[in-house]
Description:
Elements: E1 7-8, E2 11-13, H1 30-46, E3 51-56, H2 63-77, E4 81-87, H3 91-104, H4 116-134, E5 142-146, H5 148-151, E6 164-167, H6 177-190, E7 195-198, E8 213-215, H7 232-241, E9 254-256, E10 262-264, E11 270-272, E12 283-287, H8 296-306, E13 314-320, H9 331-343, H10 347-350, E14 353-358, H11 363-376, E15 379-382, H12 391-398, E16 403-406, H13 411-414, E17 422-424, H14 430-441, H15 444-461, H16 464-484
Parallel strand pairs: 3-4, 3-5, 5-6, 6-7, 7-8, 12-13, 12-15, 13-14, 15-16, 16-17
Antiparallel strand pairs: 1-2, 2-4, 9-10, 11-14
Helix pairs in contact: 1-16, 2-16, 3-4, 3-6, 7-11, 8-9, 8-14, 12-15
Amino acid sequence: MSEDREIAGTLQHVSFEGLALERFEGVIPPEAWQRVLEGIARAGTVLAGRTVWNVNSTAHGGGVAEMLHSLLGYARGAGVDARWATIAGEPRFFKITKRLHNRLHGSLGDGGPLGAAEREAYEQPLRRCADELRELVRSEDLVILHDPQTAGLIPLLRDTGAPIAWRSHVGYDHPSELALQAWRFLLPYTQQADVCIFSRPDYAWGGLQADRLAIIHPSIDVFSVKNQELGSDAVHAILAGAGIVEDRANELPSFTRENGEPGQVERRAVLVEESRLQLDTPVVLQVSRWDRLKDPSGVLDGFARHVLEDSGAHLVLAGPAAAAVADDPEGPEVLAEVERAWEQLDAQPRARVHLANIPMDDLQENAAIINALQRHATVVCQKSLAEGFGLTVAEAMWKSRPVVASSVGGIQDQIEDGVSGLLVGDPLDLATFGGAVSALLGDSANAGRIGAKARQRARERFLGPDHLLKYLALLQQLLQRSATASPSVKGAARGSVSATSSFGI
C-alpha cells in the first residue's frame, strides 16, 4: 500500500490496494471462515454502487492508521468501494485535539482551556474539509469519521444525506471531571451522528441515545508487515540491520512487502544507550508512541528499580521517530523527558536501558523492525496509564509473547490475567509491575505457556475478518434504517448494532 501525496486543499487522499480475505481461510476456524463468506456475500449486495468514506487525521503513526490500511484493503478486496481521506489542520488544531485526547483519558495534558476560542480553532479547518467532502459524498454513500479530530465534521456533512458513523478509538473506564470536559466539548457534534462506535461499553458516558451506540473491538492484520511470520534468522538480520543489536547477521535484513515484493531494512534506528544490546540478552520491550499516557518514564523507572541485574535482562523502549507523527505534537517533548530520566539513572541500570527511535521514512520498513523487536522480546510490556484498546498487546499475543500490561481500558478485554498474560491492577505500582516482569523472566516454562495461550486468544478474538464483518453489518443496518426513515427524521439518529449502558453528565 502507498500513500498518495497529492493534497487537494485540506484533504489528503490515501491510496491503498485491495487485499484478499481468502488468505485467512487457513488461519481462522472453519466455522468462522464460513461466516466471513456469508457476510461478504450479503455486503456485496447491500453496498453495491455505494462508496464507504473513511476520514481520520493521519495515514501513518499509531494503531488507527494501521487498522485502516488493513481493514479498508480487505473491504476493497471483497468488492466494497472503500476510500480514505485524512484531514489537514494548523498546529493549533492538533494541539487542541491532543488536549481532547489526553482529557478523554483522564489526563490534564497541557492544562489548556476548552472554551469558545478553542472551539472556533477546532471548527475552522474542519469547515474547509467539509466543503471538499461535500463535493465527493453522495446521499447513497456512507461516512465513517474517526476520533475527536473528525467529530466536528458530523453536522457539516448532514446535508449530504449520507448516513454518518463516528468511531471513537479512545476511552476511559471511569470518567473524571477532566474526561467529561472533553466529552462535553464533543457532544454537540457526536449527538448528530447516526451511530457512535466504541471499543468498550463503558466508553459511552451519556448524552447519546442508547439505540445509537455500537461496540466493535479493534483488530490486527496477521499478514501485515508488522505481524507476518519471521524466522529467528530474519529477526536477527533485521535487528542487526537497524543497528539495534550488536551481533552481525548471516543474511540480509529482508522482509516481504504488502504487495508481495521483497523489502530490506536500510535505515538504522536512532538509539540512546551506553552499552550495545547483544543478541543473547533477554529483552523486556515496550513499543508505543512517545506519549505520557503510555508511561515510558514509568516503565523505565519500574524496570531500573524492580527488575534486578541478575535477571540479565535489558529494557528496550521503542517508538516512532518523534517528529514524524503529525497529529501528536507532544511526541518530541515526551521523548526528551524520557531521555532525561534515562540520564538520571545510576550507571548500572542505565547500561541496561535502550531508547530506540524507529525510522518512519518507509512505513513498511518501520513495521518490519517493530515485528522483529516483538518476536525477539522475552517479555512485552504495555504499562499504559489509560488505553483505548492497545493493539500492541494483541500484536505481541499473536507472536506468542508473554505480556505484562496495565489493567486499563481495552487491555482488560484482551488478557485473561494469569492465563494469556499478566495484568497490573494499578499502573503506578512499579513494584508489582517489576515483580510481574521478573516472574516471567525467571520462569521460562510458565512464560511459554502464557505465550501459547495468548496466541490462541488473539486468533479467536482479535483478527481482521471478525472486525470487518462487524463493520459491514453495521453499515447494512444504517442503510436499512435510513431507507425506512421518513423525511422528517432523516437527519436524526437511525440506530446501530447494539445498545450499551452510559454514564450521565
